[in-house]
Amino acid sequence: MTVAELLERISSAELTEWMAYEQITGPLGPERLDVLHSILAATVSNAARAKGRKAAPRDFMPQWDQGSGRAGDWQQMLATVTTLNVRLGGTDQRTGVAS
Predict the structure, then answer these.
(1) d(CA 85, CA 97)
(2) What is the pLDDT of residue 14?
(3) 48-76 burial string, b = 16+ CB within 10 Å, else e?
(4) How far apart (Å, rounded) are the C-alpha atoms in residues 10 and 17?
(5) From the centroid of its chain, how far is CA 91?
(6) Which residues pair with 14 in a beta bridge?
(7) Burial grade of 37 (CB within 10 A; 0-12, 13-18, 19 or more)
(8) Number of H helices, E strands in the chain
């Protein structure tokens, strides 16, 4: 189905709701490739490892909706964004000067 066909069938609001749902729960559909890849990555890691703790598939599983249910430390987020802005040569719009 093309994007145009999709938009003929559902509204923009419904599409936005599905996008938000997928952002929280992870990829939609019967094929959860993130699960399959995490199992494969754990298997390869364990085959190539030395003695020590075995890797589990959860060690390689992406964490969906990482911000849900916990208060964000806005100072840390601001520091991270400021650092990235400096590294990318951006301008700090709070002061109007180059970072």
Answers:
(1) 12
(2) 87
(3) eeeeeeebebeebbeeeeeeeeeeeeeee
(4) 11
(5) 26
(6) none
(7) middle
(8) 4, 2
pTM for this entry? 0.41
pLDDT tens sequence for the chain (99 residues): 888 888 889 887 888 888 888 878 777 765 578 888 899 999 999 999 888 889 999 999 877 665 555 556 777 778 888 888 888 888 888 865 555
DSSP 64: S
The length of the chain in residues reads 99
**What token pair was written down for 60?**
């390689």
Q: Which residue has the tokens 């992406």?
A: 62
Backbone angles phi, psi at 48, to 5 degrees: -100, 0
Amino acid code (one letter) for 72? G
Tokens (6 digits) for 29: 């559909």
